[in-house]
Write a structure and sequence with these properties.
This protein has 462 residues and is mostly beta strands. 7% of the residues lie in helices and 46% in strands. The strands form eight sheets. Strands 15, 16, 17, 18, 34 and 35 form a six-stranded mixed beta sheet that branches. Strands 2, 3, 5, 6 and 7 form a five-stranded antiparallel beta sheet that branches. It has a five-stranded mixed beta sheet with strand order 11-12-13-14-33, with helices on one face.
Length: 462
């Protein structure tokens, strides 16, 4: 848990003391506090269910000693998953230069690339997703000349094309069924517009989107409900831990000339029969439109009791919304509460649970308002949520210099063995086309067909 001292001083003395009396001491001449790894882990081990008190003293060049107010770090016994993976990129919206999917150990500072777009003609990669934090079973999308959805199962990497002629847009945002047999996707037609205001320079929104389900064994994709696309826009699927319900965000289908600020998404779910593969009727879980808000990223805790969602003023692309905050939904009572200790004055957006349900990792722009960083928060209960802390770095001043943003952080229960060259080799093979299953089709409103066929799909806002 390295950190940086921003006070003036020629020499700093740092003491870390466990509630049982054990401790360690170190000195710093530049304010950077870097605990020896072995000593820090030993201190954590003896401090479980207790506290570590941090004392800091500084000395100036005249020998004056300043003692700062001590602060505590609470130590819990429930471990975090050993790895984290995320997309690392510059926080713009035009260039895909030097884009990577990276995994990072949470037990030390070791980091390794899983995917590097420089090996695939600088094409964009996004929407990485694992099956219940499983490092052996995951997928990611690649756009452009080597495009497709790349599936990893153990050591095998396959490239598949998940857009059929029945689909006006490709499969985009994924959610693995707990069994690994299915992946639910939203199929989105997304555009971006640009503001003239410096405090908000971009807006990203959907023109239409629908839910599809992909059978990984049969390589078949099907619409969940054909009539939904005419009535609604559906996005960001998420399964219940048992796989019996599919949760997602839904808004009224926009029409030509719509105002993007009027688009509000509610939280919906459908039951799912795992034997027949049949979905039930839609159920309203949380009416965000009723309070003039919009929902993104519903993610359910592994025990099935709670759901964390992002709430913001409109749309679904919360990473561009400063007002976006995390909320906790009790799935038994239906009560929704703002996670006050977790949120900040800046954007809180994408989030995921650890495999034991005791930790959350989420994207936050609280550092500088521009780049998102992964923050961790302990979750004991709705009444016992820990104060967030940023992903520790070996050099605690790294975030002050790093221009890149951390996108879509998720936990992993182990290390991913697949690397950049595995994807590069697979990219040279032809993508295997998925086939369309069933008689359902995805219907796009006529006005939007015209709009999406236009050459210029970006429009200036304001």
């Amino acid at each position: 848990m390295n950190f940086n001292i921003v006070e003036d001083g020629e020499l700093f003395i740092i003491r870390a003391t466990s509630s049982n009396g054990s401790g360690l001491q170190l000195k710093s001449s530049d304010g950077r506090v870097r605990f020896p790894m072995r000593a820090w882990k030993k201190l954590l081990a003896v401090s479980q269910k207790g506290k570590i008190e941090i004392e800091i003293l500084s000395e100036d060049n005249e020998g004056n000693i300043i003692k700062y107010e001590p602060f505590n770090m609470n130590v819990v016994s429930e471990p975090v998953d050993p790895y984290l993976w995320y997309r690392l990129l510059y926080p713009g919206y035009e260039s895909w230069l030097d884009l990577k999917i990276v995994q990072r150990s949470t037990e030390n500072f070791k980091e390794a690339s899983i995917f590097e777009n420089q090996l695939l003609e600088n094409n964009c990669v996004n929407c990485h997703s694992s099956q219940q934090n499983n490092p052996e079973k995951f997928l990611l999308h690649v756009r452009g000349s080597m495009g497709g959805t790349y599936f990893v199962d153990g050591k095998e990497v396959t490239r598949r094309a998940l857009q059929t002629e029945q689909m006006p847009a490709s499969a985009v945002y994924p959610a693995w069924h707990p069994s690994g047999k299915y992946v639910a996707f939203s199929s989105n037609k997304t555009v971006q517009g640009f503001h003239m205001r410096p405090e908000k320079n971009i807006e990203v929104y959907d023109l239409f989107s629908s839910m599809v389900i992909y059978d990984t064994g049969k390589n078949e994709i099907a619409a969940i409900e054909e009539s939904d696309t005419v009535k609604y826009m559906e996005t960001f699927p998420s399964w219940s831990p048992g796989g019996d319900f599919l949760y997602y965000c839904r808004a009224i289908q926009v029409e030509e000339g719509f105002d993007y600020r009027d688009v509000k998404y509610n939280l919906i779910r459908k039951s799912f029969d795992q034997n027949s593969g049949v979905f039930g009727n839609a159920e309203l879980v949380f009416n965000a439109q009723e309070i003039n808000k919009s929902v993104s990223f519903p993610v359910i805790s592994p025990d099935g009791q709670y759901l964390v969602l992002t709430l913001h003023d409109y749309g679904t692309f919360s990473i561009w919304h400063k007002e976006a905050d995390l909320y906790l939904l009790n799935l038994k009572s239906g009560k929704v509460d703002r996670m006050d200790l977790v949120n900040s004055d800046e954007t809180e957006s994408y989030h995921s649970w650890s495999s034991n349900g005791k930790w959350l990792v989420f994207s936050s722009k609280r550092g500088n308002g521009l780049a998102a960083r992964p923050y961790f928060a302990y979750f004991g209960s709705p009444e016992n949520i820990g104060k967030p802390f940023v992903l520790p770095q070996k050099d605690p001043t790294l975030y002050e210099r790093l221009e890149k943003t951390f996108n879509r952080p998720e936990f992993l229960t182990g290390k991913i063995r697949t690397g950049p060259r595995d994807f590069a080799r697979t990219s040279k093979k032809e993508a295997v086309n998925a086939s369309w299953a069933g008689e359902k089709t995805i219907i796009v409103p006529n006005e939007l067909k015209k709009q999406t066929s236009a050459e210029n799909e970006e429009k200036e806002i304001y």
